[in-house]
# Entry
Amino acid sequence: MSLVISCYAAICGGLIGSYLHVAATRVPLRLSFWGRSRCEGCRRVLGPSELIPIVSYVIQSGKCKHCRMPLSISYPLIEMASACLYLLAWLLIGLRLELVVSILLITL
# Structure
């Protein structure tokens, strides 16, 4: 059971890290961070398989599936860091109120 929860914590961390990175890159450009993700090169809307944190970057060799424009390495790095921090918080704290505080601080 602990392995399942550990995997869940890491996956949640990767997903939240991915979303926060996209939001952080869009806000300075005054773009909506609620819209669909697009390739910066060909402007094509990304499909579900292209939105899986870390995995999609590796499968696509760090390039857009259609125009082959290189993707920033910052995306998988932020996603991995966030996943590791969420997992570490779970492993060190466990299911206690402090975990919620830690996750909120990590997210900020």
